[in-house]
Design goal:
Number of helices: 10
Distance between the termini: 65 Å
Shape: globular
Order of helices and strands: EEHHHHHHEEHEEEHEEHH
Strand content: 5-15%
Helix content: 40-55%
Radius of gyration: 24 Å
């Protein structure tokens, strides 16, 4: 895709200001160089300066900075496990592309306000490219969609008809090959149907902006994205021990921002629903993360983050209203 390069290695960093921390992670994404961003984004931008902080910092050798490997010190039977097994390069890439999309939308509006129509059109063309890439990635995530499941079912019918014909003609070698192919396709069709059903009927236990804790690693995090099933690669699932989960890969998985004070190297994780727990009481404790100011307006009265409109639209999630505490009103009325 012209102008947007997804590579196999990324060092993401954020410094100074309200973040108050230096974050360096190996997140396997690169979207434009600083010079490209400067040339594309000529005017003031709500996101521009902070966006530049999200791009790779190269060493003198030209190699990207690597993330320090660390294990998470926690109690219980999981002691010694590496907290970074749930680090997700794909989730970090998804968030950075979302930042870029927001910045382009801001720049288009700025150009229109300044009556710079040619620049606005160029930016619009670039935004179309980014949105096409986002759509492509979203479709790839869905993978086994309802239509794919239907296609596999139709193909199965055809293979079974060919198998019957081969048996009638006593062509047993061809029949054996067809049986093997049918067996493999039946497993794929079943997985496709399960995944399609999950996308249609998913029920999420957590919501965007909600503060959660990891059951095994006990770090504080905030939900910033969600999938009905695990949409990571097979290699990632193997490293993350997804096959050992009670509910396996066919349960909701969440993109979460990890408090940098707990682990400055993890940054973004992709975690199964069964490994997360919500706080029973309002949690207004400090939470630090360089992405928080992009994705959320602030904190509500329960201590959870309020997602921006574009983030809610991305996941088609409703706005959450904090329940009113009637006990406070009763106390006030008795004064």
């Amino acid at each position: 895709m012209p102008g947007v390069c997804i590579s196999n290695s990324l060092a993401t960093y954020a410094t100074g200001g309200s973040y108050g921390a230096l974050i360096m992670v190996n997140s396997d994404v690169r979207i434009l160089s600083k010079n490209q961003i400067n040339s594309m984004i000529p005017g003031p931008s709500l996101w521009r300066q902070d966006l530049l902080r999200l791009y790779p910092a190269k060493s003198n050798s030209g190699r990207l900075s690597s993330r320090i490997k660390a294990t998470w010190p926690f109690m219980g039977n999981h002691k010694g496990m590496d907290v970074n097994i749930e680090h997700s390069e794909a989730a970090n890439e998804d968030i950075v592309i979302f930042f870029f999309q927001l910045d382009l939308e801001t720049q288009i509006q700025y150009a229109l306000n300044m009556e710079q129509y040619e620049a606005a059109q160029q930016l619009r063309n670039k935004l179309d490219e980014v949105e096409a890439e986002i759509t492509k990635k979203r479709d790839a995530k869905r993978g086994s969609s309802k239509s794919e499941a239907q296609d596999k079912a139709i193909y199965l019918l055809r293979l079974r008809a060919e198998l019957q014909k081969a048996v009638e003609n006593e062509n047993y070698s061809a029949a054996a090959e067809l049986r093997d192919e049918i067996s493999k396709l039946e497993a794929e069709a079943l997985a496709a149907s399960a995944k399609a059903l999950a996308f249609e009927n998913v029920q999420y236990a957590f919501r965007l902006g909600q503060k959660v804790r990891h059951k095994k690693f006990d770090y504080l995090a905030v939900i910033c994205g969600m999938d009905p099933v695990c949409c990571e690669s097979n290699s990632w699932m193997e490293v993350a021990n997804v096959d050992k989960l009670i509910r396996g890969p066919n349960q909701p998985f969440y993109q979460i921002l990890v408090d940098v004070r707990a682990d400055p190297n993890l940054l973004v994780a992709y975690v199964a629903e069964e490994n997360l727990v919500a706080n029973q009481q309002p949690n207004k404790d400090r939470f630090d993360h360089p992405y928080a100011s992009f994705l959320f307006y602030g904190i509500d009265t329960a201590g959870d983050f309020i997602p921006i409109k574009q983030l809610r639209e991305k996941y088609n999630r409703p706005r959450h209203e904090v329940p009113v505490d009637n006990s406070d009103e009763d106390n006030d009325s008795n004064l």
